[in-house]
Amino acid sequence: MSLLALSLFLYSVSVLTLTYNSISSFTSTVTSAATVCTLQNSFEPSFVAKGDFVIGGIFPLHYNQEMPDLNSTYRPYRFDPRAFRWAQTMRLAVEEINQSPELLPNYTLGYKIFDSCAYPLTGQRAALAVLNGLSEDDSPMCSSSSPLLAVIGESGSAQSIVVSRILQPFRIPMISYFSSCACLTDRRKYPTFFRVIPNDDYQVRAIAQLLVRFNWTWVGLVRGDHEYGRFAVQGLLRELQGTKVCVAYQEMIPLNVQILNVMRSSLAKVVVVFSAEGEMTPFLRDYMAQNITGIQWVASEAWVTASVFTGSEYYPYLGGTIGFGIRKGQISRLSDYLQTVNPHNYPNNPLVQELWEALYGCSPSLSSASQLSPCSGQESLLEQHSAYMNTSSPRVAYNVYKAVYAVAHSLHNLLRCQPGSGPFQNNSCALSNSILPWQLQHYLQEVKFTIAEEEVNFDLKGDSIPYYDVINWQRGTSGNIEFVNVGLFDGTKPAGDELVIQEDRIMWAGHQSEVPVSVCSASCLPGSRKAVRRGEPVCCFDCVPCDSGKTSNQTKCTFCPENFWSNEDRTSCIPKKVEFLAYDSLGIALTVISAVGACLTIAVFAVFFHHRNTAIVRVNNSELSFFILFALTLCFLCSLVFIGEPTFWSCMLRHTAFSITFSLCISCILGKTLVVLAAFTATRPGNNIMKWLGPKQQRAIIFSCTLVQVVICAAWLIDAPPYPSRNTKYERSKIILECSVGSSLAFWCVLGYIGLQACLCFVLAFLARKLPGNFNEAKFITFSMLIFCAVWLAFIPAYISSPGNYADAVESFAILASSFGLLFCLFAPKCYIILLKPEKNTKQHLMGKEKK
């Protein structure tokens, strides 16, 4: 910008001194006659025509403009046939209007067309020239204001900003055909600016939707060093907020070497460019020289239809480019009109000669100093000269056409004003012989007309209706690049419906039919999630497997529903495995052990019943023995209740059956212990304790002790009974069906009562362990209670720490182990004597009174 400011200053010193008089006369300031109006530098218009009303035209007929030297000499680098076509379109439109009997009847339009050379500084020069006269001899032009009502221009936004600021003090409206910078919508800075091209707010919205649509999440941005590029990039970044698209880099032309190095090393294979074709030409020349390929270009409307890049040499590098172009239209007479422009009809126009040199590579002028071979200047213009003869789908030229007609319709409406009903002070109208530019602007703001079935009007900011064609660069039959329309962006439609693309018609970079991939990190596979890398954009991430119980949609892991769990790949939720102590290997083993224990107990019962009249059965209180065997049978069988799917009834039966049967068993053993202790104590003189421990009293003791447990169980069932529950806390991948105890207090009271009975039995049996006799049952009761207590003391920590269905297995095992302990300790010695040592099954032997 500092270089531009310096150039503007140099030019101001050398050129702007020409018109203090002309500007002062425009503002009605009288100056001294001694002041001489002189042109400091010649700048002839490209084309000029007189008329009742004159409009200006500014077009970039040359591009790649070098900076001026200190003598304000400009050296255009290359002629642009495309911009020349735009200028001819303006001339055609003026001729059509002048020939129309309906539009501006009895009036004619004139024009002055100047070359801006696609550069802001020369754009300023053209703007000043269009305001002033044509030569020193044209004294009315130099001594008074130019009869200029409007300007059609400029192409680039940077040039339009300069031209608009120059025209603003004179309140001359300008209509741009190709300046799309959103900055130009500011009515405070650019109050006289209009345009027939949508502003970049719509273009960047369309480009953002394009990037999101094709999942290009890692893109590069390249812009020109001007307001157009800066505002466009800012707008695109604003549109990309909240999307998944990240910007890999932002570079600025003309830093070509730096940009190319970044592009070559970056993972971003999609590059969005906001630049004009003049700036793109040297950049692409360096790009092609370094043979960089594989880039999917996304072009802004400023160069997406630039015919200068349609040569076959560009296709390997630019083929597949996609972008948003100005909506095309139809100009019926344009093709025929362009063919009338040739060196034969315009022998003195240097631009026409340059056109021929650009199209045919020959010089039509014999006096030209060109090194090109001579030609007649009457060669036929062919369709292959697309840079100039592309009239089948005019875009920018169509905008020029609409802009001229907008001025004509506005002027027509102004001239039809009826006195007394006008829009100005006191309802006045403009004077037809002295129309001021600001009066025309009033009508331009309100103009509304239809051309080629398209409605043209301007909003309060001077913008037109936002339409874009989606353009794709494809190889033509001759090898050149052709611009193929593959979609439409309609900014008037609701959000989300604006962009319509025919994807099957698109040819991508590298002549590929598949959509290119441009990502910083490849999408995570199902079952993993994104982990953003520290200090990098969110589009750059690592893929981390999901935790158990979660699945991913390639971005984040989510928990499965309550009764579901993730599969091994973490790709889907499957129903959780339901576990309980079933009849599997463990359940069958416990069942067999339980059945064996019950059968052994019944077998012992049968042995005892068969030998009920023998001494060992009678001495050990056969009735209590049968009660104990009955209770042990129930103890063995109650362990079966713990196997199988828990139900409401089975849960209540488990603990109550277990507690009551064990309480009955221990009560019987307690009664037997008391009887044994009392029997040997009764042998002492004067002791008649046995009369208090007869059969009735023994039954009463058993009943009373068991009844206490029954009462505890009844209270438990009434207050908070056990119930089936689904436990997911221990192992979240499974649902463990178990019986919740309901009331932990009741559960431990039940176990505590059994433990109390066992401890009482143990103490009494321990006291009677040294009583006389060969078969002192108190010793076996003591040992059985030791085993019983050891089993249940070990049960408590094992039960608390056992997971899920294993808690039921632990409790079942404790029941079986303690039952086997009681069975073997109490009845194995007796069965041994009954079955294997019948000779010892005598009262004398048992009492220790056998004869030696």
Automatic annotation (TrEMBL):
Gene Ontology CC entries for this record: plasma membrane
Cellular compartments annotated: Cell membrane
Phylogenetic lineage: Eukaryota, Metazoa, Chordata, Craniata, Vertebrata
Signal peptide start-end: 1-17
Gene Ontology MF, one: G protein-coupled receptor activity
Top-rank taxon, per record: Eukaryota
Family from the record: Belongs to the G-protein coupled receptor 3 family.
Keywords: Cell membrane, G-protein coupled receptor, Glycoprotein, Membrane, Receptor, Signal, Transducer, Transmembrane, Transmembrane helix
Stored InterPro entries: ANF_lig-bd_rcpt, GPCR_3, GPCR_3_9-Cys_dom, GPCR_3_9-Cys_sf, GPCR_3_C, GPCR_3_Ca_sens_rcpt-rel, GPCR_3_CS, GPCR_3_vmron_rcpt_2
Protein's name in the database: Extracellular calcium-sensing receptor-like
Segments forming domain G-protein coupled receptors family 3 profile: 586-850
Transmembrane segments: 586-609, 624-644, 656-680, 700-718, 745-768, 780-800, 812-835
Pfam families, per database record: 7tm_3, ANF_receptor, NCD3G
Gene3D superfamilies from the UniProt entry: 3.40.50.2300, GPCR, family 3, nine cysteines domain
Entry membrane topology: Multi-pass membrane protein
SUPFAM superfamilies (UniProt xref): Periplasmic binding protein-like I (SSF53822)
